[in-house]
Design a protein that fits this description.
The chain has 678 residues and is mostly beta strands. Among the domains are: 1-176, no CATH class; 508-673, no CATH class. The chain is built from 6 helices and 42 strands. It has a 42-stranded mixed beta sheet that branches. A hairpin with a 6-residue loop joins strand 2 (51-54) and strand 3. The radius of gyration is 47 Å and the shape is rod-shaped.
């Protein structure tokens, strides 16, 4: 009996050894094909495996290579170690699950919905990833090495991806079209459907970023607690988007040497602290904070070293600024209302600023309200060839004015403008020591004073102008001792001219409709020289010819004859009322070196004339009658030498005297007795 027992025990040992040897050489790949076919037939997993290692002696461990699950998961290696398998109870507990060199597309992870009932509840004690790539909605995380503990992704047949777990790990790179992060370290948990990271550290746009993070998909909120941005260089081609319905919250944010580069804003050297920022992805954030920066450029607006405070709501962004701008000092209180597209300048003071006007400048704000604006010691230089303007020693004060619908309007009865300049140059036209005072009501711009040194003389303008079409105006202009040489240089006309001019005008009418003007106009000139306007020679030749019968003369030939010499006018006076755009000239005259030319009739300011001119003798009697009519560009010209009575009737009695070098007596006889030119 004892021998039988020994033989039976020996046989069992041999049988066990043989079985162990057979199982050790068991090839699980032989069962892979029928098992996968059964799984894919009875589920919607669409799973494939390249190579499978499984030892029946260790039935809770499996190593699979080249694993694919639908089109959302690919893994070079998948290692699975089961802690518990209870198919009848539907309970599966995974002790360790490792994913190596895997790629997961989270936005396609919907094919796991149908699993067998015996996989109703799945618990993972530890999940490890190595060199994992995650992709979703334009985001991609590469080199993800994570460790997840105590995760239950499936319960009672329902997937619960955001079930409670602890997590830690690193991410080599996180990228998005508007975001680039690298070397990310994180540690935290998912609790009650919220991702909570106690420590998040990374490289962000060449800088450092640290924060506590809370992501709540249910309420669609992303919260950063005490985020710190250090030496970060933010670059955006467009405004960073936020998924619809989501809100970004920042609590006690800290900025150190931050830079922003975007099509609408560029800023460098930003240091600051923000108590809170709440942004719903559109419009303005609710925010409160302060900062200082080395420079900031918004379109053509530029700030140098400055400090700022921000207090923003959804309806209004309030800014307080102090520092340097345009090589001067700046103080400002601003309010921006995005829904109305309106900027309120509550207070803006610029001192010693050097401003530039560029050709492509435009005002980006459609609605502007200026409560108080004060510029002092300002300089302006225009780089626009169409606006050759420069200003030195500029002063400007504006109170209670608004700009909207391309129209200025007052905000109160105190709406006014005041200003001045040490030197104002428009091309070669220069004005010095000038200033103005103006008021604006609901219908008119009232110019109390606009005065300055101009053209080496002095000019003053006052009056009013309607702000609405047809822009009815009432203006009074006084100018003394203006240098025509500077005006000639500025106009760059074919004929140069020089001399001195006094001007007095009181006109009313529509600004852009000269035919509506009424009032008085007076011009007085002295020592006027005009190139290629040989008036004396022309009159002498006409007086020497026979025009006892009135004759029409070709105006082009007459003009060509005038251009044969230069003209000098000792004194000129043109005066008279203006009626419906027609200047009624009477008692007007031009004194050249040898002749006195009197004028009567009317000059149409819209481009025509009907004038009677007369070359008068030393008795004031007209000996050559010149009639001009039709338009300025194509006039009709008639000449006549009227017969003189004895004694003759003076045709001109006025303040302009007969020239001292003029011919005495009858002009026609005196001219004909002159020696003939060779």
């Amino acid at each position: 009996m004892r021998k039988l027992a020994r033989k039976l025990l020996l046989a069992l040992l041999l049988l066990g050894a043989a079985g162990w040897l057979l199982l050790s050489f068991f090839d699980a790949n032989q069962l892979k094909k029928p098992v996968l076919e059964w799984l894919n037939e009875h589920t919607e997993l669409d799973i494939s495996i390249g190579r499978l290692e499984f030892n029946p002696l260790h039935p809770y461990k499996l190593l699979a290579e080249d694993v694919r699950l639908g089109d959302w998961l690919e893994a070079k290696q998948l290692y699975l170690e089961l802690a518990r398998l209870s198919p009848l109870a539907g309970q599966t507990r995974i002790a360790v699950l490792d994913l190596n060199d895997a790629r997961i597309r989270l936005d396609r992870a919907t094919e796991l919905a149908a699993l067998p009932d015996n996989l109703a509840t799945i618990t993972v004690d530890e999940l490890n990833t190595k060199n994992l790539t995650l992709a979703w909605d334009g985001w991609e995380a590469q080199g993800v090495n994570l460790k997840l503990n105590d995760w239950q992704p499936r319960r009672d047949g329902q997937w619960r991806w955001w079930s409670d777990m602890a997590l830690s790990g690193q991410v080599r790179q996180l990228s998005h079209p508007w975001l680039e992060m690298s070397r990310i370290g994180l540690e935290g948990r998912i609790h009650r459907g919220r991702l909570e990271l106690d420590g998040l550290r990374s490289r962000l746009f060449d800088g450092l970023f640290e924060a506590g993070l809370s992501l709540d998909p249910a309420s669609r909120e992303l919260t950063l607690d005490e985020p710190r941005f250090s030496h970060t260089r933010l670059q955006f081609d467009q405004a960073p988007p936020l998924p619809e319905g989501w809100t970004l919250l920042l609590n006690r944010a800290s900025l150190q040497d931050l830079s922003i580069t975007s099509p609408w804003l560029t800023a460098n050297g930003i240091d600051g602290d923000f108590r809170y920022v709440e942004w719903p992805g559109q419009g303005l954030p609710e925010a409160r904070g302060d900062w200082q920066a080395d420079e900031a450029v918004l379109d053509w607006l530029r700030l140098d070293a400055h400090q700022g405070q921000l207090l923003g709501t959804r309806e209004r962004l309030g800014l307080s600024l102090q520092g340097k701008a345009y090589q001067g000092s700046l103080e400002a209180e601003l309010g921006w209302f995005p829904q109305q597209g309106r900027l309120d300048i509550d207070n803006l003071q610029l001192t010693g600023s050097k401003l530039e006007w560029l050709p492509d400048m435009h005002w980006p704000v459609p609605d502007l309200r200026i409560h108080k604006l004060n510029l002092s010691q300002a300089e302006l230089l225009s780089m626009d060839p169409g606006l050759p303007l420069s200003l030195h020693g500029g002063q400007l004060f504006v109170a209670d004015l608004a700009w909207s619908a391309e129209q200025w309007r007052p905000l109160s009865e105190q709406a006014r403008l005041e200003g001045g300049w040490s030197e104002l140059a428009y091309d070669s036209l220069i004005s010095r020591q000038g200033g103005f005072k103006a008021r604006l009501d609901d219908t008119r711009l009232i110019m109390d004073e606009l005065a300055g040194d101009v053209l080496d003389g002095r000019a003053r303008l006052e009056g009013s102008l309607a702000v609405y079409p047809p822009h009815q105006a009432s203006l009074r202009l006084e100018a003394q001792d203006l240098a025509l040489r500077r005006l000639s240089s500025w106009l760059r006309k074919e004929r140069g001219f020089s001399g001195r001019l006094n001007l007095s005008a009181a006109l009313e009418g529509e600004l852009h409709n000269r035919a509506s003007w009424d009032g008085e106009l007076r011009l007085e000139g002295e020592d006027i020289f005009v190139e290629r306007l040989g008036l004396d020679d022309w009159l002498r030749r006409r007086l020497g010819e026979d025009y006892r019968e009135a004759k029409g003369v070709d105006p082009a030939l007459a003009a060509l004859d005038l251009e044969q010499g230069d003209g000098f006018i000792y004194r000129a006076e043109l005066k008279g009322p203006v009626r419906q755009g027609r200047w009624q000239l009477d008692g007007s005259a031009v004194q050249s070196v040898r002749h006195l030319l009197a004028l009567r009739g009317e000059l149409d300011l819209t481009g025509g004339w009907d004038l009677e001119l007369g070359a008068v003798n030393d008795q004031g009697c007209r000996e050559l009658a010149i009639h001009l009519e039709e338009s300025w560009r194509s006039p009709k010209l008639r000449l006549h030498q009227p017969a003189l009575a004895e004694p003759c009737q003076p045709w001109y009695r006025g303040p302009v005297p007969y020239p001292a070098a003029g011919l005495p007596g009858r002009l026609t006889e005196a001219v004909r007795n002159l020696p003939q030119e060779p």
